[in-house]
Amino acid sequence: MTCDTEATGAECITPYGDERSKHEQVQEMFDSIAPAYDFMNRAMTMGIDRIWRGRAVGIIKSHGPHRLLDVATGTGDLAIRLACEIPECHVTGIDLSEGMLSVGRRKVEAAGLADRIDFAQADCLALPYENDSFDCVTVAYGVRNFERLADGYREMARVLRPGGLLCVVELSTPRGWLTGPLYRLYTRRIIPLVGRIVSKDVRAYSYLPESIAAVAQGEDMLELMRDAGMRNASFRSMTFGTCTIYKSYK
Questions:
Q1: DSSP code of 249?
Q2: What is the pLDDT of residue 3?
Q3: Which of the listed residues 45, 153, 231, 249 has the most CB atoms within 10 Å of its CB?
Q4: How confident is the model at residue 1 (pLDDT cuts 50, 70, 90)?
């Protein structure tokens, strides 16, 4: 893909590096790895992703939302956790990948939550919802896949009601003198190797560490939220800086 003049960071990192848009390449990648996605998530984080997701749910639960939108919902892990822990809420999940959504729908049916979770294939840069539609918008491990991150934040802010919460969970890069090099070894060597064996997609798990390293982090991410019209933006780093929760309000 050839980056346009306004694209920066993770927007210029694509799964396959060809001339197609990032949107198209990300969609193909997740369709390809959908059958192995949940296994790889657990394996590459050693199950810690459940703890990160749980901390985000705690933040969201304290806000008392009734109608939630989970952007880049994938196979629905966060949507299901939200519906289980906030019984009064209804969750709408959207994703580019129909392959991922198909896995998610089976999980929702198995959990008996089909009346409280619905999924739709949609683009985060053109959300098919009216202004001020949701009490809370969430994204877990997805914003680095956005083709235009600033536009994605503007769309999420648009569909939030006044006072609504935006909560983003994203992988990040540790900066410690020991954790930094160990993390780079793990993400750039071990994860791609295991990913190639398990998912059969040669590029998908090489794209992962490249996109993590390139995506806006810390104050840079908060600035994107503020530019989209969000307020009281803050972040919390977890597990030596390998994951960060960002929150802000409309």
A1: E
A2: 60
A3: 153
A4: very low
